[in-house]
Amino acid sequence: MRGRPVLRDRRRPQRVRQQRARGEGDVFVAEADESDRSFLLLAPFGAVVTNVEADHLDNYGDLAAVEAAFDRFLETVDPQGFVVVCADDPGAARLRDVPAPAGMHRARLRTYGTSADADLHLTGLEVGPDATSYTATLDGKELGRVRIQVPGEHMALNSAAALLAGIELGLPVADLVEGWVASAGCTDGSSSRAPSPGCACTTTTPTTRPR
User: Fold this and answer.
1) What's residue 45's pLDDT?
2) Residues 33-54: tens digit of each pLDDT
3) For residue 14, is it within any domain?
4) Which of 124, 51, 52, 41 is nearest to 75 (CA)?
5) Does the model's pTM come out above 0.90?
6) Higher confidence at residue 197 or residue 115?
7) How many independent structural domains does the chain possess?
8) pLDDT class for 183, splitting at 50, 70, 90?
9) Stretch 166-182: mean pLDDT, rounded?
10) Which pLDDT value is given to residue 178?
11) Whole-number average pLDDT of the chain
């Protein structure tokens, strides 16, 4: 990362510094924290939502409050940006139907998953002992075979989220696919080392462009 930080947590500024990693380019990827609603303090250009469920109820009380927080999160994303959500998760998929406030233009919303109605559709999923592969099709156009060096359907979904986010950022599809082949994949709570914008291994992953 070069220059000044482009994403800040105003309540916990030390946390951003402790979890950052040095890199290059104009995309800053961060894990958002919905547990205490601090993700609502962010102003990302793009975001990935992998799942929305009845979690952190010590702070929220019930699922309805969790959903309301994610509804508000949609409004924090740059209207010129994007939101990528998992079509296979009912909680995340619900965000497709959340109306924008009157007079507000909302960021473009795109979906990924094995569901037939996903914008980025995964088919031919194969999970081996040390790798996972699938065919990615975006808006009816086949992008090719994606292979990641970690096992698990959930890892395939994570990589698809990163792939779709990268495409929304304008990165070359071929480079994104090749990046996963060269990468060791990702684990929960971490980001990919592949030449892609990041791996959506957590509930929300915002991407912010410097201004």
Assistant:
1) 92
2) 888 999 999 889 999 999 999 8
3) no
4) 41
5) no
6) 115
7) 1
8) low
9) 85
10) 83
11) 80
Inside any domain, residue 141:
yes
| Residues spanned by the domain of 69 | 23-208
Helices 153-168 and 173-182: crossing angle in degrees, nearest 10, is 150
In a domain, 7, yes or no: no
Domain assignment present for 172: yes
Between 106 and 210, name the one with better pLDDT: 106
CATH number reported for the structural domain that contains residue 196 in this entry: 3.40.1190.10
